[in-house]
Amino acid sequence: MDDASRFRPGWADLAAAVPGGVGVHADGGFVHVSPELAAAVGIEADALVGEHWRSLFPSTEADRIETEAVPPARNGTDWTGEVSLDGGTPADLTLSTTERGALVWLVEAYPTRTDGWDGERAGGRDGPPADERQSPPGGGGVRPATGPGPADPSGPWSDPWEGRRFVENVVDALDDVLYVVDEDGTLVFWNEALRERFGYSEAELAALDPADFLVPAESDEVPEDPAAFVDVPDRHNVVNLVTKEGESIPHELHGSTYTDPETGARYRVGIGRDITGRLQRERALKRQRDELATLDGINEVLLATVRELVGTASQGGVERRVCERLVASDRYRFAWVGERELDGDQVVPRVTAGEGDGYLDSVTHTIDGDERGTSDEPVGAALRTGEIQVADAVAPDFEHRAVARERDFESVAAVPLRSEGTVYGVLVVYAAREGAFTPRERDGFDVLGRTVGTVIHAARSRELLFADAVVELEFRVDGGVLVPVAAEADCELELEGYVPSGEAWVVYCAVDGAPPDDVAAAAGADPRVERARTVTAADGGRVELLAGEASLLHAVEAAGATVRTVVAGPDGADLVIEAPVDADVRDLIGTVQETFPDLALVARRERDREVTTVGRPGGLLDALTGRQREALEAAYRAGYFAWPRESTAEEVAASLGLAAPTLHGHLRKAQRTILAALLDD
User: Fold this and answer.
1) Mean pLDDT of the chain
2) Residues 378, 367: contact at Cβ < 8 Å?
3) pLDDT, tens only, 60-80
4) How confident is the model at residue 52, as a pLDDT?
5) Considering the entire predicted model, what is its pTM?
6) From CA 563, how far away is CA 494, in angstroms rounded?
């Protein structure tokens, strides 16, 4: 381990030269405390000598360490874990025991950094200036061999050779590597950690040049003249040390010059700490800080976008504002909204914003693919699956890699614009950084996609509600829910109204040509009808159906249109869909026929609406909430307000999936609002 004939230091001085958060605890108190350890707890090193180790920690933390860490260390097993020092500073602790039973405390404190350090020191490899570092002063917190001894005169420092063995045990207990180099550049002392970590035998270490531990690029850390190396100023270096097997391990080196008081020989005493874990933690913290900063910026963009969307009346205006808002930040270069073309599988743009001139003319996006989507075509996959898709444009299999990289597009996210199961289009965003769309960022865009989808749905519904002119689309269909029921009961059914009830629809139909009870029985036997009941039993009465698979109503409502009339008989059904006159009729027809392929367009006509104020802004129904209006309409359609009543409150509530008291609350609030508008001055 050493050449005693050549290296005869004062062993207490060698212990004091060991830097870092080191404490040696024997006979009930510290016999050595390094300045770094003292600084971490804010107590002078001299003041800690003789104190119990519990003084380093809060009482509850000390109790935990005494239970979890001390017993295994006493039994010869090093204990490593995270602790909290007195004052709240987090730290890593390695606790071990020497042959004489002294506890060796190796503490690496990690106070919160504010300089954004990611593993490279602010002052270069040599670290901050000397006046900003803590160098161990002569003697440090150790009892010097020539000065006052410990309280126990028989302690380890009373006899130099006993002290030597004690310090040897201490340095061998350290997890850090410790070495001593003489003026000839020869290793004359090292601890067990150095031998075990780098895989050399004792004989091999004695023959090694210190430069052999460094990678070639860092070999200039060792001066050509070994004597000059001994005199290198005390400093912290972050270098990569190489094991015998060629593995590179980052170490923080700290060294100082020691002069033998008897011979005058000078030595380099150094310690190396493996900082692999620390660098990983620092970089992880930096990534987290960068990610949080990015997420804050995204949230700011999203919130501002949502605020603007609330006041935007049209679908085109909604989509345009989203794209403009996104590219106005410095995070995204290009954004566009697309939709599936009516008669094909390609995705065509509706609006664009940003630095993408000519890009969409150079590429083709399709919705072909399996249900999982593909890494090279996120746009089509997002439309097809209704799930957000991301990809790196730098990936070799990215379909439009060359064109994208010409415009500095490194990442792309395709966000479906959806509401209640309907996808209205896809928002495609490009960023100039690889891996830009982290899981947290994707969550933010997912919220944006749902919000935009909801606003688009509301905009389409508003356009229909307040339109002065509408377009009527008349269709003929042989299937659906009502046609089989009409055929079974041999009658004609006419739609009188419908109200959403969660994922299902409550449908009211007038019956002509059969007892309503027979119609309810026939409808109840259809697996697509969750519940059926008779509202009015007389011939020419009314039935109520709870249809769980009324996908046509979903598709039409999602498109911003409404089913105006349906007349179903044994041979088929005629229905009329009403949409705003300026609606995209081709898109509406394509959406409806995609859901119901058997639907055949019979006629298209435009008409002016009758002037009414009931449903317009400021009208009687404008002040009602959506739930109040649904409850009021369901009660009216079910004959709750008829005399005698055709349905009880319990029956109406059941159709909407509500409790009866809840229904009564909605109805009373709706009635009071309407009556106040009519009767108050």
Assistant:
1) 75
2) no
3) 999 999 999 999 988 888 888
4) 92
5) 0.44
6) 12
Q: How far apart are CA 75 and CA 85, in angstroms?
A: 24
Q: How many CB atoms lie within 10 A of CB 219?
A: 14
Q: Residue 491 half-sphere exposure, CB side, CA atoms within 13 Å?
A: 25
Q: What is d(CA 331, CA 379) in angstroms, rounded to the nearest whole number? A: 20
Largest CA distance in the chain: 123
Residue 603: which H helix or E strand, with range? strand 600-608
Q: What is the pLDDT of residue 66?
A: 93
Query: How far is residue 191's CA from residue 110's CA, in Å, rounded to a whole number?
Result: 26
Q: Which residue has the higher pLDDT, 204 or 396?
A: 204
* Omega prior to 156 cis, within 30 of 0: no
Report d(CA 301, CA 135) in Å as an integer. Answer: 48
Structure confidence at residue 224 (pLDDT)? 65
What interhelical angle do 439-465 and 315-328 show, nearest 10? 150
Both tokens assigned to 269: 């005493």
For 443-459, b/e burial (b = at least 16 CB within 10 A) is: ebbbebbbbbbbbbbbb
The C-alpha atoms of residue 350 and residue 320 are separated, in whole angstroms, by: 9
Question: What pLDDT is stored for residue 574 in this prediction?
Answer: 92
Q: Phi, psi (5° rounding) for residue 121?
A: -65, 150
Quick check: 202 and 135 in contact, CB under 8 A? no
- The three-state DSSP-derived secondary structure of 118-159 is CCCCCCCCCCCCHHHCCCCCCCCCCCCCCCCCCCCCCCCCCC
